[in-house]
TrEMBL record:
This is F-box domain-containing protein. Pfam families: F-box-like. It comes from the Eukaryota. Residues 70-121 form the F-box domain. It comes from Agrocybe chaxingu.
Length: 544
């Protein structure tokens, strides 16, 4: 059999079957040509795939743009960022960078929102480069500036240089600083910082200066210059600790909050200076004096001061908006004069600590309560007074909610009995009582006080007793039951006049209160604090 093999595209050659295989001659389409054709097709396919990917990206973007979130105008999105960031209670430094990582549009909106960059801090953990960047992004927005360098030894060598550079950075923007806080180790650092802040501060509302080492650098007892050129028309809150500014009254005008502390010996202000400051702040809402030496008090002639306090003051400083008063080791002479010369008809919180004999202060508060005093919180720590002075004052405080007596030896059964009496009720709205470190009262008076404040309706508060005899297990329980019975018989009006039930009681460091007594208190009081006392080496003792 003959096999015809093509010799050319037009002719065929017969090959005998016995002569073996004969390879075909090369065609007009070479291998290189075919490979080139395949490569060309691959290039076209790659281009099509790339084009498809671009179209898919555009399609995804178009679909995303249909989302209401991404269709928000930049102004509305900026307001949302502002509310979300500034509305947080705790300042989160990574909140704004997190928003910027969502997408490019959000990053542009955040960068163009100056108020997000208005809080600027310089500290060992916040660099000047970061502060400079935030200052530039804040544009002309009011600033909240914080310069915080504590008393740690590891960076005291370079703190002066850092503070100087920080003040030089903020000095051109002083006109738009709304809040300024400076915390430094020594007075020399404070003077070097504030000597660069001599321009006017028309927008400054909150000023805080804290010097940690108040007992050092006495040669910086007075600054030779006026802070902010004496021009702070919008200043409303001022907190100064151990910074001696010469008591320039231009800085203390029209304040709402005044906090002074850490002024000892010669740096302490006089009583007349403090009264002049109060006269310039008729809208004052909070006054706090802490760690101020009473240099005017002469230990050799205490009768003179007491004699001056006996005279009635005709022209008092009227402070109708004052709501918070705090005196912590502020000098009994200063405190007596201030309390005797101011009127505080809307005071809601009073805190007195480490003031020796506070009988004149209680008398001044009692005199104010005869007209109007909506006091809600009273705290007395480590002071000496007559117990009847306190009892008479408590009877004039119907709006008192929180009573804190800490390390007071004068508190005995007399005070608790006065709070348990219904002829009439003393402090009927009282809900929180602290007797920390008070060891003079007995358990029976405390139990009678708690029981007298229980609801008159036996179904209003579930007891753990099941029989009537159990309710009369003591004389105090019987007295409380008798008071509740009289209340039930008096009708609905008497129920409305009943006092509030005690919700919190603190008997920490009260050695006369045993564990069983604490368990009884927990049956009728929602929160009972009874942290056990500790020994010399920190070990807990047997008391609850």
């Amino acid at each position: 059999m003959l096999v015809f093999a093509p010799a050319s595209p037009q002719t065929y050659v017969a090959i005998p079957p016995d002569e073996g295989y004969v390879p075909r001659p090369p065609t007009f389409m070479s291998i290189a040509f075919l490979r080139e054709a395949i490569a060309t097709i691959d290039i076209k396919m790659t281009a099509l795939v790339k084009e498809r990917a671009e179209l898919e990206t555009k399609l995804e973007t178009a679909v995303r743009l249909q989302s209401p979130v991404l269709r928000l105008p930049s102004e509305l999105l900026s307001n949302i960022f502002t509310i979300g960031v500034l509305g947080m209670e705790d300042d989160n430094p990574v909140m704004v960078p997190t928003l910027m990582l969502v997408c490019r549009y959000w990053a542009e909106v955040a960068l163009n929102t100056p108020v997000l960059w208005a809080k600027i801090s310089v500290s060992p953990h916040d660099s000047l480069q970061k502060a400079r960047r935030r200052l530039m992004r804040s544009k002309s927005c009011p600033l909240d500036v914080t310069v915080n360098f504590g008393p740690r030894i590891d960076y005291l060598q370079s703190v002066s240089e850092h503070i100087t550079h920080a003040m030089d950075l903020f000095r051109p923007a002083l006109w738009r600083i709304k809040s300024f806080s400076l915390t430094v180790p020594n007075r020399s650092h404070a003077n070097n910082a504030l000597i660069r802040m001599q321009e006017e501060a028309p927008m400054l509302e909150d000023l805080t200066i804290l010097v940690h080492n108040s007992l050092q650098d006495d040669h910086f007892s007075k600054t030779p210059y006026s802070l902010f050129s004496g021009s702070t028309p919008n200043l409303r809150s001022c907190s100064l600790t151990s910074f001696n500014f010469g008591w320039d009254l231009k800085l203390m005008t029209g304040l709402r909050v005044l906090k002074l502390g850490g002024y000892l010996n010669s740096s302490s202000p006089s009583t007349s200076t403090l009264l002049d400051i109060l006269r310039q702040c008729p809208e004052l809402e909070e006054l706090a004096l802490k760690n101020i030496t009473d240099v005017e008090t002469n230990a050799c002639s205490p009768a003179v001061i007491n004699h001056e306090m006996d005279f009635p003051v005709t022209h008092k400083i009227h402070l109708p908006r004052l709501k918070r008063l705090s005196f912590h080791y502020s000098g009994i002479g200063h405190t007596k004069q201030i309390m005797n010369r101011i009127a505080f008809p809307n005071l809601e919180s009073l805190d007195m600590a480490y003031l020796e004999n506070v009988n004149p202060l209680l008398q001044a508060v009692h005199a104010q309560a005869l007209t109007r005093l909506p006091l809600k919180s009273l705290r007395i720590e480590t002071c000496v007074f007559g117990e009847m002075k306190l009892v008479n004052l408590l009877r004039k405080l119907p709006s008192l909610v929180t009573l804190q007596l800490i390390d007071i030896e004068e508190v005995s059964y007399i005070s608790l009995r006065a709070l348990s009496s219904s002829q009439p009720w003393a402090c009927p709205r009282l809900e929180s009582v602290t007797l920390d470190g008070c060891a003079s009262f007995d358990w029976d008076s405390l139990r009678a006080f708690v029981e007298s404040r229980l609801p008159a309706d036996p179904h209003a508060y579930k007891r753990y007793h099941t029989s009537g005899a159990a309710l009369m297990s003591s004389a105090s329980a019987a007295a409380a039951a008798y008071e509740r019975m009289k209340t039930l018989q008096s009708g609905q009006s008497a129920l409305l006049a009943a006092p509030q039930r005690i919700r919190m009681i603190d008997v920490t460091r009260c050695n006369q209160i045993s564990k069983e007594m604490v368990q009884w208190l927990r049956m009728y009081v929602a929160s009972v604090k009874c942290e056990s006392t500790k020994g010399v080496w920190g070990e807990p003792t047997s008391t609850p």
